[in-house]
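My current task is to audit a protein record that another person submitted. What it holds is a sequence and that sequence's fold in token form. Thanks in advance; the entry in question is below.
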Amino acid sequence: MIALAALSGPLPKAGVVLVAALVALLLVHPAPRIRAGAMLGSLVLAPVLLLAAIWHSPQLSVIHRHPLEAAVAAAVVLAGVGLLAFAMYHRPWLLAPLVVFTLPFRVPIAAAGTTSNLLVPLYLVVGAGALASVVKGLRSGPGVIGDGLAEDEPRPGWVERLLALYVVLYALQAIYSPSFEKALQQMVFFYVPFALVYCLLRQLRWTSRLLRQCLGVAVILALIFCCIGFVEYATKTLLLNPKLVAEDNVHTYFAINSVFFDPDIFGRFLALVMLIVATVLVYSRARRTQLVSIGVLAILWAGLVLTLSRSSLAALLVGLGVIGAMRWRAKLVLLAAVAVVVIGIVALVVSPKTFGLNQGLNGASSGRAGLVSGGGRLFGDRPVWGYGSGSFEREYLCHVQHQCRAPSTTSTTLSASHTIAVTIAAEQGLIGELPYIALVVVSIVVLVRGARWDPARVAVAAAFVALVFHTELYADFLEDPLTWTLLGIGTALAYASQARPQPVAARSEELATLA
């Protein structure tokens, strides 16, 4: 209690900077024991910061009234995490399919006056994996650190350095942010656990069998989610998100979201899985695998169309272009892409009403064009250091909408940025924007270079490029665990291929044996 009370003053800002420093140390330090200590420190400090921030909030009133029951529940959860950590200690490969399985599942939790859809199942898996890794790291020396883990793990490269730099800058710029609580949530809910995901996945030995297991889990989940979406569409009912239910009731269209709280997030997930399956299709020569892939793609395509997510459809098109450019001649793919763009422009000119352009660009984009221009104004006011981490909604309402108040969960004003580059520019200025751009460029280069004849790497690279494109239309870059997951797997595969190049024939079937 004394510690939590002490953290109610200026110390939370120091705590955010400290936990960011631990994450940076975890990402860039070459010594396993140092990384294990940083992992343990961030694993402990992040929940403490969160509890300090929400200790007096209404959602914890049950704990205040029933402390014994809360302690028992916490003990049960920790015991479950401990058992899972024990299993992962002896079988590290379990982490990968469990991470993939828990990626889509979010639980709504209120914190600091807002409601966030949090990846609670993923947090439990990451906590167990981190505990197992900490024990293994503290007990082992250099070289082979355990069965299922990569031997001679490469030294951190520029991807890790840029990730560390961005996280530290975000924490430092949270100090002067008027929305520090939002920045704290971003750090403890997203950056800390997702950095753990990245490090844990990167240190695994990614065998063909493990890749198939993860692909199988992702495809099965996507098919199940599509079936749920089909039921939603047939019955015109939604499982989650009352706001979306209200929107569907006043429009002629009906958008599905399955177990996700947002059709665009559901569409993003389906598009990325489709890109991986499409890679299997174009690289495999087995007729049965091709037929199964086509069937899976048809079902997922139907689900994606029913989400009505234009950003996800565009991201899928971009990812398919990447696959085509890496599988065949890039010049032909580029010409096809230009043809598609020209056809699209002609269609817009001939029938602008069909695409909603008669409402203007802002109306056709559901208000997102206004958010981009408003974010540009905020960046113009403070181009170097920005308004502070997590402050976009507050500052947009104040300076653009002239409603200087804290963002409310019940507000109908569209104020959350849907373009991650604009969000970073407004919140962090050039101090944050330049590292972000460098991170995107370097990550794409690492994932794409030398991957042409490696289907697993092609799939990850195409999915990552599509995800980056989607974030420019629907935000959430490093706030999405898919980003860190793809980077963790992709960098592990890239470094492994550089260290131990394999024959083309051996690598060409890594994804193709799903069926």
